[in-house]
Amino acid sequence: MSKVVISCAVTGAVHTPTMSPHLPVTPEEIAAQAIEAAQAGASVLHLHARDPQTGKPTPDPEVFMRFLPRIKEGTNAVVNITTGGGQGMTLEDRLAAAERASPELCSLNMGSMNFGMYPMLDRYQKFRFDWEPAYLESSRDWIFKNTFKDIETIVERLGKRHGTKFEFECYDVSHLYTLAHFLDRKLVTPPLFVQSIFGILGGQGADTENLLHAKRIADKLFGDSYRWSVMASGRHQMPFITMGAINGSNVRVGLEDSLYAGKGRLATSNAEQVRLIRSILEPLSLEIATPAEAREILELKGSENVNF
Question: Which residues lie in coiled coils (predicted)?
Answer without folding.
Answer: none
